[in-house]
Design a protein that fits this description.
14 helices; alpha/beta; three-stranded mixed beta sheet; 12 strands; seven-stranded mixed beta sheet
């Protein structure tokens, strides 16, 4: 009947969408292992960590920062007016502490903290790290080995450790973040518009100063995406990597409320800053997964003869989600199998952020309002 014809049409369209969606992630790559004697750096490395109430995270990150032998190396923690002993923790682990000043008018907290860290840095290579990351053994050496070309910027998406059920809700935010850089498509880093991850960013200092540093993105929530455009405009090579085995993060151990606030503060700005082709690719990727789930529900509910086909298509969509999820973090198999719930959650957070932005509202993050 008509239902069978419509269902068959949906299934026929979903298959090509599924195949085409691989184009978004066909060039996934992890940070390569460094040669035994590789340092990749001339002029020293300054690690800059903006930190606002990050005492617990710094106690994990700072011990993981082991300098490669013979390489000039410094760790700078910018204490962004913390109230939890962040500065004392940083000093106890041997870091240089910069007492951050309040952001001037027009500046958001993270860009301002990064700028203050650069002012105190001595190295000719700058590695910006978020405080909720940590390096795996040999990780600093592998990141240092990426350096060498003074017209190149490298950013790394840390492997996301999500040990609790609540943290599994980050799944599609992670996948969209990876696909949204437009850096893992068929063209890879040669694409005209490439985003950069903000959690770990390695930049040669002369190039950073050439584009105006964080001063050019002082009011941006996702300063990494906007910095990428400035680097691209001056002809710099932008390369993105996945961090599994090199750098790890745990973003929201506090649960769903923190997760919603954390992802929600930048999700609309991120969509606006993402390359149009990447947005289209993510939309197609979402569409394939939604249509497969809807087709399965309709086929099972109607007792259709195409139910087996719908189930098979749903399972290969879930398998693709699981494959990508395991590249991004320690996501569980059941989060991929039940992916429609994660998709709906992602869309709900996104739409809530859109509504809040249209009404001129803000999101509170670490005690500050974020536009």
């Amino acid at each position: 009947g008509v239902m069978e014809i419509l269902l068959a049409a949906v299934l026929l369209l979903t298959g090509p969408f599924w195949l085409a969606s691989w184009a978004m992630v066909v060039r996934l790559r992890v940070v390569p292992r460094a040669e035994a004697d590789a340092t990749g750096l001339d002029g020293g490395l300054s690690v800059i960590i903006p930190a606002r109430n990050e005492k617990e995270n710094l106690a994990r990150l700072l011990p993981s920062l082991e300098a490669p032998e013979g390489m000039p190396f410094e760790v700078i923690v910018v204490d962004d007016q913390s109230s939890d002993g962040t500065a004392d923790c940083a000093r106890a682990h041997g870091a240089t502490v910069v007492s951050g000043e309040a952001p001037p008018d027009g500046w958001l907290g993270k860009p301002w903290a990064c700028r203050q860290g650069v002012n105190a840095a001595r190295g000719q290579w700058l590695l910006f790290l978020d405080a909720d990351t940590w390096l795996e053994p040999g990780g600093v050496k592998r990141i240092a080995a990426l350096a060498g070309d003074e017209r190149a910027v490298h950013s790394i998406c840390p492997y996301h450790r999500v040990p609790t059920v609540a943290e599994q809700w980050s799944l599609f935010f992670n996948l969209v973040m990876i696909m949204g850089t437009n850096a893992f498509t068929i063209r890879g880093g040669e694409a005209r518009e490439v985003g950069l991850f903000g959690q770990a960013l390695l930049v040669p200092r002369p190039l950073y100063e050439e584009v105006g540093g964080h001063g050019t993105v002082k009011g941006e929530v996702l300063e990494n995406f906007h910095l990428s455009r400035h680097f691209g405009a001056c002809g710099a090579q932008r390369t993105c990597w996945l961090g599994r085995g090199t750098i790890t993060m745990r973003m929201f151990p506090g649960g769903v409320r923190d997760l919603v606030a954390g992802w929600g503060k930048g999700i609309v700005s991120g969509a606006g800053a993402t390359a149009k082709w990447a947005v289209a690719g993510v939309a197609a990727w979402f569409s394939a997964r939604f249509s497969a789930a809807i087709a399965l529900l309709v086929a099972l509910g109607a007792g259709s003869s195409l139910a087996a086909v719908a189930l098979g298509l749903y399972l290969i969509c879930a398998a693709q989600v699981f494959f990508l999820a395991r590249q991004a973090g320690s996501f569980r198999w059941w989060a991929a199998l039940l992916y429609p719930a994660g998709l709906i959650f992602y869309q709900a957070v996104f739409l809530a952020a859109v509504r809040r932005k249209r009404r001129g509202g803000t999101t509170s993050w670490k005690g500050r309002d974020v536009a």
